[in-house]
């Protein structure tokens, strides 16, 4: 079944674009916004409304499949593509992108997605958000044309056997790191709470504030969690451990702090995302390796998660090959085509690095559902609850999409029978 039309409509995303550099340099809150001037190219304000592009791919029988172009909250930071402005990029989708894809067989998902991935307009590759959103719609179009699930289309493209149980969902609390986390405990969320530790105030000048918070996590999880609840704590510190301690990262002072985090989290495992941000990929990998080796030598069991400077498929390969992380975040909008996220998860197979299929609060319900299928198709270690910062909505969207898909796949499996044949 052929693609007959591709249409782009500017829309909103599930959160906001934030100028990370301005915030890390000390921009102060003004209610929900920030005071001061932005410092990252493309920003008009330090915090501005998130944007998306709603992509419709129409098939010859009139069926329409959707995808949403979206970019991360901290666009333009850590080597990422620039701020995504919907009005600027919508004509690219309805123009050059549509010209390339209209008339192609919708069932050729991987070929179509790879064509999109390699496209150039005026000598430049398409913005990652365009590749992300249009490829979601191509995935949906293939599933519609084949009357199957997006999970099965992705699994066929990647050569995988899909998960038969939901992938553990990682809930993010935003700045409301107490109330939202209590919600997660009540619902028994397996990985939590992110916590948004992006300033010295939130971590403490010597890290003491974060330690107190981790102790609170243990106490409150045992009070509110369901019976036999065994959470994994995942804290994103946005490089703040590096800010307060500095290099080298294998020295006693740093290792002792991680040992204190391990002790505070006991009896539950803890993983720390983005322990430092040193400004480029090569140095970031070296710093992460140094930290991991220091922790390993000291017998400190805290997992390290790569985020900053781990954006593209090639970045994921570099971090994994160097052994720079226990987990790599596959930050779905930054990899471009959604199949590239699946390929990145697969690259971790057979290594000491697990794959966290992440993304951003600044996506949409459509992109979140598409990522749930990637998580199932690849059986990732964990998948982010998104979009938004309210937690409940994102958790519902991702968890329910996986449960719905698993139930549909189970119904469609050939039924086993106990009938005895004449030869028995």
From TrEMBL:
(2S,3S)-3-methyl-L-aspartate binds at residues 172, 329. It is an enzyme of class 4 (lyase). It comes from the Archaea. Pathway: Amino-acid degradation; L-glutamate degradation via mesaconate pathway; acetate and pyruvate from L-glutamate: step 2/4. Residues 1-158 form the Methylaspartate ammonia-lyase N-terminal domain. GO terms for biological process: L-glutamate catabolic process via L-citramalate. Its cofactor is Mg(2+). GO terms for molecular function: metal ion binding; methylaspartate ammonia-lyase activity. Mg(2+) binds at residues 236, 273, 307. The active site is at residue 331. Belongs to the methylaspartate ammonia-lyase family. This is methylaspartate ammonia-lyase.
